[in-house]
Amino acid sequence: MKNRRGVLMSNHSFLAASDTLSHFDIPGSKLAYPFTQFLPVTGASISTFGPLMGTETISATDEQARRVDELQFDLGEGPCWDALATRQPVLEANFATRTGASWPAFTDAIRAENVGALFAFPLVFGPLEIGAVDLYSIDPVTLTPGQQHEVLELSAMVSRSVLSHAIQTAGRTIDTSTFSRRLIHQATGMVLAQLGIAAADAYLIIKVRAFAENRSMQEVSEDIVARRIRFTEAVDHGEDIP
């Protein structure tokens, strides 16, 4: 009965975290907090880096979480970099006993920061690479497969939110002429077919591409329809997108 009660409480906490992140009006600075509601971690952070967006910690639950990001940015190595490069979670349950050869400088630095465990989950959206979610614990701790799956679900929601916030902040105008809307609709359908994603997500990818290249959505859509831009080719060849 006790274990069942614990599972029910954990499920409720995850649903509450999911509900919070489902609202696109949540401030970017608060995006990391829901992860601490249902996981056995001390703190969390959300950061952007890579070819698409600038390097920045956009949300951190505490100064230690922010420091974990800062060390990885300054040293150019660490779990967050590997998570984004591989598009897979990187799980370090106990830094005190870690023997891996990767990130030698970061490993030495983090052991002096009172961090026992660190988990990094990639922030990606279709072919777009955005950043990472970092979760740390003062003490060594593990995440169950179920918890890892839940973090990935929330990370997908954070990815959408981060992209939407970035576009809104940029304040770019969208051509709403009849021709433009038809062209963008056609390009959206092509991206949808290439990547096998929802129409809303395909539209957002076009919007982000335009934002990243400082172009209009119509211009990017023209290239997609003319097949000068093919997202599947870029993914297959490991190219950066945009």
UniProtKB/TrEMBL annotation:
Recorded GO MF terms: RNA binding
Keyword Transcription included in the entry's annotation: yes
Pfam families: ANTAR
Keyword Nucleotidyltransferase part of the UniProt annotation: no
Residues annotated as domain ANTAR: 164-225
Record keywords, A-Z: Transcription, Transcription regulation
InterPro entries: ANTAR, GAF-like_dom_sf, WH-like_DNA-bd_sf
This protein's name: ANTAR domain-containing protein
Species annotation: Cryobacterium roopkundense
